[in-house]
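Hi everyone,

Forwarding the result from last night's run.
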Amino acid sequence: VPQQLPVALVDEALRLAGPLHLEGLLQLERVLSVRGGVRVCHVLLQQLVRRRPLVDRRQLGTDLVVLEVERVLVEGGRLGVDDARGELDLAERLHHLDLGLEARGRVDERQPLQPVGGAALLAHRHVRDQRVELVRQLHHPRTGGGTAVAAGGSALRCEDGHGAFDVYTGGCLCRTGWRGPTCAEADPQTCNDPRTAGVKPGRCTHPSGCGPGCACSRGTEYSHMLSRCAASCDLESNRCLCGSRARYPRRQMNLCEWRGIEKALEWKDPGWAHYRITEPWRLWGSPNSTPPDLAAALGPAELHRMWATAPPHSATRAYCDIDEAALARGVAPLFSCGCYEDATGAACELPVRSVCLNQCNAPQGVCVRGWCRCAAGFGGADCSIALPALAAPREVDGGSSAAGGAGEGRGRLRPSVFVYDLPSEFNSWTAETRMTASDCVYRRYKEGNETVWENYAFGLELALHEALLVSPHRTLNPRDADFFFVPVHGGCYISRFTRPTPRHNLYVKPRGGAPILGNAHYRAALDWVRSRHPWWNVSGGADHMFAFPHDEGSCVAPIELRPAILISSWGRTELGPRNSTTTMGEHNWYNRRTLPLMYASYRCFEPGKDIVMPVFTSLSQLATSPYVAEGMPRGGAAARPAPKRRLLFHFRGQILRYVPTYSFGIRQQLLGLYGCKTGKEIANPKDLVGVPWCGPDVVVSDRHTTNYLDEMANATFCGVFPGNGWGHIESPLLLGCIPVVVQDGILTAWEDVLDFDSFALRLPRAKLPRLAEELRAVPPERVAALQAGGGRVWGR
């Protein structure tokens, strides 16, 4: 035992440290030895191995000391390792450990708590009670923006419309475009990137072509932005608007540009990303209507020259200046730009409902461009928390307040789940800044506020977030929670790199591309949770849940999330996987330099801890399901008996036959064994019967067809194989087709939860050459039983 540690303290630490899991002790070892301090973990591990095995991390005893140790880790620079000798007097520091309970959740002004026991290790329950008492002393006379008066009378006001007060941390959670303690400081969300580093020659656009010395159009990688704006940028949302001098300054100009824009701005090749191009006089009625900065960049002479060809009387019909009354009479503008998700019409003059979490439980809140602005007396990400109820958290009952108050009329169901409220950068940012209406949402609205259901594969993260917020299992009191959900919308964050903006792009290329940036994004969320809430420390993260709906799921998760419950659609169980399966280089996570930062350095999925959920599917597939067809029972029976299905086996999807790493080569092998040899495609599924070149009753193809769902609904067995990551099991089940899973060591959705053998088949890859024979050998009664099993579980 090092001399700096009193023997009594070591004995006390050994008594309390038993429930800590190995990773936590090793982390403590690393941190305490940074500056030549105490190497206490080595001693503790030796003693623990001799005295007793490590016990479950949720048993009695985890409730103690964990928070205090974590404070030493997080605040190490202030709590002991910042003195000149570089030593850590752990006993003295723990004896006088100060815990910051200042209203904004920081440790700026720590106030000492009364020590407990000779070793001065504070009980975590006592810390919880102190935090609860702080929240009890808060009250919330909010007027739109939200003012909270903390204990002692000091007022904390979140700027009206810029942010919301977070009752759990005592701080403000700012919406996109704002930052600072009260969300009063602008955080510009720019549309165009002014950088010129890495300039690349632009494509020559002169009609006569370009020879030596010809001045071609400029172009840089930084001008390759989907948010780029040829008018005036709204810095709250990186939206392109007509500008302050137009008759309608906030009229939207999405994916719209005017000829000659490259004379004023660094610009990607004209028309990139299907931008609509027109003459400037079709957009603004006169040079004096243009945005001031563009007018300044072009100069008066050039600006007026551009209007020289404008026909008479065109000014009243220019896009940015045409009157809304004229539009209502049916007068068309000279040109139409694209609209963002909350507008439609020839000039984006018609409002459309925006998409927010649970639509802000109106009238408790209003959805404003993807962010919930809560009415007075309500808070939370979806305005579901009745703030007066949280003035005394000990009395808060679990459940959602979506129907009028926290826990009103409901008892708390177990297991209970606490859903964190996070800063907008981790979830609502993706909704507030999206360029197209369908981006990163599984539902949206169109003219007349009619719901449109999107086929967004990563919709799991948004749907799960919404479902847990309204679930009767939700508790508003974290002290009573069995599990904690951390709502990071990381699938959208990673996929959005293909739709770049100045704040979110891959042009500043880190090694590892999108995966390493996504990894850092989740880590930043974890750091925020750990620095402002104590709950991660109670179990070492074992009861915390994160969603990873992207192609290869939690492979890209930070290694720090190894103890947590990771939810994805990719159940690759292999230890130390040595490759990424994606064909997109910017999404390839396997990089030896950055791999240690990722969960994949251990594995991508841990059975018994992590969860595999289905890929989010389209409503069109659900609508064509025989289980929901008119007059059909909703479960309990097979969709169609086997004799009525004309195909034995069906698989149609992306195969990439010349990319051997894709799908581990499984889809390519299948195509070589059973693919249609002539290249011929059958338009009508009925014509597939008796076609010898397809098996005759086996369809394997990488070609698209409008009869895809009909084919699957007419097949007895359907293939489920990996692709860039997960394969699809939800489509066969919805259409009454028996899934045949061929992906060794990779679990599919709910495979370790439901009675998988009752509705699906799993074959080892070694049997792929005999796939047809294996399926023909399945007895009819077994086929009927599998179909009936699918009828029982399809709704899951």
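The CA atoms of residues 238 and 506 lie 17 Å apart.

Cheers,
N.
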